[in-house]
Amino acid sequence: MSTADYEVTLPTQASSDFDQDQEWCQIVVAGEKRRIRFHDYHEIYSIPGLYEHLFYELLECDSPRAVTELLGEELRETGRDAAGLRVLEVGAGNGMVGRELAELGVRTIVGVDIIEEARTAAERDRPGVYEDYLVIDLTDIPPPTREELAATNLNCLVTVAALGFGDIPPNAFAEAYNLIEEGGLVVFNIKEDFISHGDGSGFSRLIRQGLDDGALAMRSQRRYQHRLSVAGEPLYYVAIVAEKRAGLPIE
């Protein structure tokens, strides 16, 4: 299936007065009209090419490139080799970020997502990018899987466009973070509103606590345009590269 096999329509600006996590599109496939929320990833991934067409062509998403670029700058400034990174990518989806990491020179990438459709899409669209791709709930990691991950000696955590809307709970992020070696890099992005001191989300509190306690050391950050909203308005995120100094608490 290609983009010629379906038609995507975004809501008009007049009808798009809702939050980012409530955005939706209408798609017609084989004469059947469907309405899909942007966060219904299992439906989006099941249609080949829809994720890329919707987010990267229509809404101009730039996060995989922007976040990976910031990581690359950090590696060059510190003299670290991308080939030496052993990355745990959380919320790996269909492999858009994994491909950018591979092009940066990363050789070991373990993808994690909570839905089987994501792994199926990654294997379909970007075979060979991941050394392994696990479908697990990070808040309930099976002991054998935890042992396997620990044996990989992971030294970099990457998660892009998956934090702040409840897709990845704070405890899931903390569990993944705690699998990374001390001194490893922690790379993520977040909507700029979610890192302000006025935000009360669990993730925001977790990151602020980590920075205040010294468990997390900020290396670099950059504000950039993540994508457009369905109304055509820019959505700004902050890309962050930090260093793990100690573990984060699990509540």
Give a written overview of the molecule.
With 251 residues, this protein is of the alpha/beta class. It has helices at 41-45, 50-58, 63-78, 96-104, 116-125, 143-151, 170-178, 202-213, and strands at 6-9, 24-29, 32-37, 86-90, 108-113, 132-135, 156-159, 185-191, 216-228, 234-244. Strands 6-5-4-7-8-10-9 form a 7-stranded mixed sheet, with helices on both faces. The longest helix is centred in the N-terminal third of the chain and has 16 residues, at 63-78. The protein is globular. The N and C termini lie far apart (44 Å). The model has no long low-confidence stretch (mean pLDDT 90).
Features:
251 residues, alpha/beta, seven-stranded mixed β-sheet, three-stranded antiparallel β-sheet, 8 helices, 10 strands, globular
